[in-house]
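Sequence only, no structure available. Ideas?
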Amino acid sequence: MTAAKILIVEDDRNLMATLKYNLLKESYDVITAVDGAQAIEIARSEKPELIVLDVMLPKLSGFEVCRILRKEMTVPILMLTAKTEEVDKIVGLEIGADDYMTKPFSMRELLARVRAMLRRADMSGLQPAGEQNNLKIGGLEIDTGRHQAFYGGSSLDLTPKEYDLLAFLARNKGFVFSREQLLEKVWGYDYTGDTRTVDVHIRWLRQKIETDPSHPRILLTVRGAGYKLEG
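Reply:
I predicted one. Tokens follow.
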């Protein structure tokens, strides 16, 4: 089995060395970049399975790198930030990051996040034996075998986490899940940060599957309870 390729983008040499050492110890294939411009170049040529991306970088910020790469590829992106302002975390999610961690962080938690983000095919809520690969809800169709989704016959350009979230809700059509439950089931770990991560991904999905995202008819909010998918 081929080791997952992870790109670390970090200009702090000590932290870079620590991250690389621990990821190599977990048998990942690790490549590195020390500034934003180099990160984009390497990501395009090496096509990693996951990117660990610092926000504060020379040449181009992590936000700019994330924004550019998200338009070109669906690779999962874990952002690292030394900032504590909530707006910075939300900005990272808004422009396409799948998750974020605030420095300082424990290496054990980072490795858990990495494993969870790479474990797309083994997410909780996998379809039972005998269930068809295609899930259909109104004009929405999800091919779980190929990890693709379509709406009205047109392919949806989803990030890995958007697909995971949509597929999980589709497999559990009509059931309401709280933000905490979705973080556990879809992100794959006990999340201790801001549950607004879920809200951001829900908003992205609505922009892609709803005729009028401000008045959703498919991906619904159940006030005080969470979210559910209806057809």
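The radius of gyration is 18 Å.
Hope that gets you unstuck.
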